[in-house]
């Protein structure tokens, strides 16, 4: 197979490098973990055969994540939300409307979020070495402690040091032989700088997509290397048990990022995709559910303000308020769903965009002499005639009711999904939301 040309897709103001190989009957988008370099992949003794084998039965679409490999540099580490934008940009560039996805390591977390958010573009998922959360928590005992994580960061940064230390650092990432170590080390050194690697680690540390897992409604294959010392097998079991249509396969003799034994990996992928296609589950259909972030706003003291101004002036002020909010929704790719009196209801395909839109709205309406409260929640929503509904919408509305004047209040789910965004939060404790079971931890967006 001739080596493919590297091309570029524009995502916002960043160029994303991608390659396409194979002419199979379906598209498979490979979302890598960690650091990659598209052209150096072909020099890696076990990875290149793996790519050729995948390309023999599908159209394989690969890319370097922004900030790594041949893609444009990026300040800091991009969020999972931004990376989803990059995937859609690459798919649009190659004319891929719907695809299966193969995600590795933190790439697995990203495609799980992608599948829940964009079910219309996702036919099936294959995830390997997937972790839904990186750090330890009382309800997630397979994560790293702070001390363990810092040791891992220090170990990985040794890749940029003396060659002997660098080789030992690479060996920790998989069951590599000497030839594989050299190829992987070269790819990592050309694919990222020490600063980029550190920023990626900081972002990965914050990943927590556990709430998203039940919202994945496509067939899912969870692969996990038996010799994986980076992500415990129990984490893979956790992922497989919470995605409704998931199956776990343990790969004997394979480590975290190693591809020795790639034939077995491709055999599992081929078998899984064949089953999905033959079952009819691959066929495109209009999804009836999707992950979305909902935003509710309302004007503080609206009745008193209306009485003070009188009907005519109040109508004018409301028109200005509506116009201002609609401009911000366009700016942050929000979708207006309803207005009821002085309140707005909108949805977003990314929680960080939703938060920034809410902050921009609450700040800008002060020019009109108004103060808003805003609330956000991310959850699986029902889709019907261009509208969204379901329990996630009710939770968002209840969160907004808890907000103080001028405050943007979010559920814990929203906070967990904006890893690497730079957004900061202040705890507002645990609340009972009217009509919603359980207790909900709430956070206010911290602003200067």
Question: Layout of helices and strands, plus pairs?
Answer:
Blueprint (H helix, E strand, L loop, with lengths): L6 E5 L2 E8 L5 E5 L15 H9 L3 E5 L16 H14 L5 E6 L1 H12 L4 E7 L17 H12 L5 H9 L6 H14 L2 H12 L14 E6 L7 H10 L3 E6 L10 H18 L9 E11 L2 H8 L1 H21 L3 E6 L2 E6 L2 H14 L7 E13 L2 E3 L1 H12 L5 E4 H5 L8 E8 L6 E7 L3
Parallel strand pairs: 3-4, 3-5, 5-6, 6-7, 7-8, 12-14
Antiparallel strand pairs: 1-2, 2-4, 9-11, 9-12, 10-11, 12-13, 14-16, 15-16
Helix pairs in contact: 1-9, 2-3, 4-7, 5-6, 10-11, 11-12
The gist of it:
This protein is an alpha/beta fold and about 450 residues long. It has helices spanning about 45-55, 80-95, 105-115, 145-155, 165-170, 180-190, 195-205, 235-240, 260-280, 300-310, 310-330, 350-365, 390-400, 410-415, and strands at about 5-10, 15-20, 25-30, 60-65, 100-105, 120-130, 220-225, 245-250, 290-300, 335-340, 345-350, 370-385, 385-390, 410, 425-430, 440-445.
Instruction: Give the strand content.
Output: 15-25%
User: In one word, what is the shape?
Assistant: elongated
Order of helices and strands: EEEHEHEHEHHHHEHEHEHHEEHEEHEHEE
The biggest sheet amounts to:
8 strands, mixed
CATH class category label of the largest domain = Alpha Beta
In terms of structural class, how would the helical and strand content be classed? alpha/beta
Strand order of the largest sheet: 1-2-4-3-5-6-7-8
Radius of gyration: 23 Å
Percent of residues in helices: 25-40%
Say how many strands there are. 16
Low-confidence stretches: none
Assigned CATH superfamily of the largest domain: Alpha/Beta hydrolase fold, catalytic domain
Q: What fold name goes in the CATH topology slot of the largest domain? A: Rossmann fold
